[in-house]
Amino acid sequence: MHTDLSDQTVLVTGASRGIGRATATALAEADLSTLDATNSLIDRVVDAYGRLDTLVLNAGVAVPAPMDASTERWADAWSETMHVNLRAPELLCRHILRHFQRQQPSGGRIVGVASRAAFRGDTPDYVTYAASKAGLVALTRSIARGFGDDGVKAFTVAPGFTRTDMAQDFIDEYGEEHATKDLALDRLTEPSDVASVIVFLASGQADHATGTTIDVNAGSYVH
User: Fold this and answer.
1) Is 49 considered catalytic here?
2) Helix ranges (DSSP H) in the chain
3) Could you say which of 129, 153, 174, 221 is catalytic?
4) What is the mean pLDDT of the chain?
5) Closest CA to 198 of 63, 13, 7, 16
6) What is 156-215 written as a DSSP string?
7) The one catalytic residue among 126, 133, 153, 221
8) How far apart, in whole angstroms, are the C-alpha atoms of residue 59 and residue 112?
């Protein structure tokens, strides 16, 4: 099955490293152009390319919020995490939905990069991360149900522990064996493993799966 993304424009947020970089690279190899930018980024992409077919919500942070931290530090960690992982995607989606509604009959696609933590939870220090990713899942599901009549399709990809810059500190401290001990497969998930699923969703070949989440976690969590 050939994945044809020619003549499409995809915007990948957080494309400088990890999953976002791998996704942007894979999309570019499919004759696709991507831009990563600022507050006016959707308008800039549309102005530059004339259309925008898919938004990949990949930018994210994992800020620890230990229960023994001061209330101020704990609240700041929640605020920063929610701002980057949930508020920013909501604002981008609000803006792009208006564009998709005008871009008929094709509409467009939104792919949110969440986490297995949205479903199985996370460690006590990263409750805020899990909560933000669960919110992203709910956001994409709501968009799928609420804007399907406008041709909008929305999906979520939920990676497990993935070999990204964000995860490297954990690997350096505890070792890769600790990170892989609960996997069904014999190797850690790579950014390219996640990127290939995102490219598939952007291709339009899975449009009738709108509203669903695809787990990419090497079998570490099954539901």
Assistant:
1) no
2) 18-29, 41-49, 71-82, 88-102, 117-120, 127-146, 165-174, 176-180, 191-202
3) 129
4) 84
5) 13
6) EEEE-SB-SHHHHHHHHHH-HHHHHTT-SSSSPBPHHHHHHHHHHHHTTTTGGGTT-EEE
7) 133
8) 9
**Each residue's pLDDT tens digit, 204-217:** 999 999 999 999 99
The one-character DSSP state at 9 is B
- The predicted pLDDT at position 33 comes to 29
The residue whose two tokens read 């609420």 is 146
Partner residues linked to 109 by β-bridges: 54, 153
Contacts of 91 (CB under 8 A, 6+ apart): none
Judge contact between 12 and 45, C-beta under 8 A.
no
Q: Which residue has the higher pLDDT, 70 or 3?
A: 70
Set out the domains of the chain in order of their start, with CATH numbers: 10-216 (3.40.50.720)
Query: Is there a contact between 153 and 110 (Cβ–Cβ < 8 Å)?
Result: yes
Task: Read off the pLDDT of each residue in 92-106 and give the average, rounded to a whole number.
Answer: 89
pLDDT higher than 90, residue 89: no
Cβ-contact 125, 64 below 8 angstroms: yes
Tens-place pLDDT, residues 121-131: 999 999 999 99
Half-sphere exposure of 141 (CA within 13 A, CB side): 10
Tokens 């008929």 belong to which residue? 104
181 a catalytic residue: no
Per-residue pLDDT tens over the stretch 10-27 = 777 655 555 445 544 544
